[in-house]
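Quick log. Single chain, no ligands specified.
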Amino acid sequence: MKFAVMGAGAMGGYFGGRLAAAGHDVTLIARGAHLAALQENGLTVISPKGDLHLPNISAVATPDEVGPVDVILFMVKNYDVADAGTAIRPMLGPDTFAVTCQNGVSAPDRLAEIIGADRVIPGVARIPGEVSAPGVIRHRADFDRLNFGEFNGGQSARTDALFAALVEAGCMPSQPENIRHDLWTKFVMQASFASITTLTRLDIGPLRQDPKSSALIIAAMEEAEEVARAVLPDLAENITQTVWPFINEVLPATSHASMLDDLNRGRRIENAYLSGDVVRFGRKHCIETPIHETFARALAPFENGPPA
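-> predicted structure:
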């Protein structure tokens, strides 16, 4: 299969690298020092699942340099979805589809408005990692999950082909029966986890150890779960109770959201698409969301980078 990775940062670079190592035609679309390093030295992946060095991987600055592909791994930040969605049009052939992998729940619909819902495959990625240096991806766990499915649920020949390619690459894909359920289930945890670690500038360890802050995390998830169930009434029950043991017992104490990394590095943050979207969907369904509204308002000054 011919792949383009729109936004070849930690997640995009990782999956693109694995697919390229398995023999697929992969082009990474990146920018800045990261792009320069990819073009000069290739891509390096450091991972518990095995290191990679791909000295000749294709890396370019714009989709205009790529041409039509089979699959676009659409892995830009939430705030870049509109511009990137317009930019990928030169890569759209008759059967091209794009897999969204943004935090939150709104990216598939926003991209569908630009390129059409028939071209969008919503995805949910669970893979901790970072660009540790230009051209170098550090993957920090022995799992690299990418769940995806058709916009209106179920599988298809094209999602089966993507699944097979990812298995061949040694990754851990899955095709849930209803990908929107997976999106919203992750969102209940992610919106709460991301906001509280970013707002406090703390890893999860001290937050879950303190009874007051751990109670706040649980209450924030319950609030998000109420919104999620209003949007999807057939969503599984007791998401918060199911997810809390993972946060409290499984996550390493040093875990925190990538949004905190972005804030600490002086970058824009995805606040509007995490707690901000809990509030937005809550208002749409007449549900009060005081915890996430507080999170969203407190983090608002950092949405476009460090406040002046």
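The mean pLDDT is 96.
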